[in-house]
Amino acid sequence: AYHKERKLPVVVFRLFNTVGPRQTGRYGMVIPNFVRQALAGQPITVYGDGEQRRCFTDVSDVVWALTRLAESDKAVGQVINIGNDSREVSILDLAKLIKQKTNSSSEIVLVPYSQAYEEGFEDMPRRIPDLTKIRGMIGYEPKIGLDGILDRVIEHFTSDRGRV
Q: For residue range 19-58, what is the model confidence (pLDDT) as tens digits?
């Protein structure tokens, strides 16, 4: 609205499940939480039925996109999705993949939303970005896929840097 009314040169972007090695999981970020649980041999807690589907984006791909968008006149006044649409995964399958990649003996436990959140909580069954606009605007293509993201996060948590 400020762009339209006052010509303020803004770019609005929506991030889709950005993940990076130093992410703590403090605010419900599923990958660092699953990795930490798997490495500690704790139950890997999946909320709901685990069928909710997501795509995950490496932070380095997001930084690349933000830098290009900040420099692009085409982006001014636009709302742009930044994410990765190359591999959609259910949260339950994500937990299984992390368990396998960490060689964990952790049990995967489904936790009903009613136990995890307040009454009336609803989760989006599918959250996948449409990247048509950003591809056309700056030639964006995510470079790091889900396996690379998981490998980087696991490596961080198993290194001296990631131990808490």
A: 999 887 676 689 999 999 999 999 999 999 999 999 999 9
Q: Is the pLDDT of residue 141 over 60?
A: yes
3-state helix, strand, coil in the chain (%, to 5): 40, 15, 45
Q: Which DSSP state fits 73?
A: G
Burial 11-42 (b: 16+ CB within 10 A, else e): bebeebbbbbbebebeeebbbbbbbbbbbeee
Residue among 23, 18, 16, 17 nearest 156 (CA): 23
What span, in angstroms and rounded, lies between the C-alpha atoms of 157 and 146? Answer: 17
Q: In this structure, what token pair is assigned to residue 48?
A: 């709901």
Read off the DSSP letter of residue 106. Answer: P
Contact 78, 11 (CB under 8 A): yes
Which residues neighbour 73 within 8 Å (Cβ) at sequence distance 6 or greater?
none
C-alpha atoms less than 13 angstroms from C-alpha of 15 in its C-beta half-sphere: 13
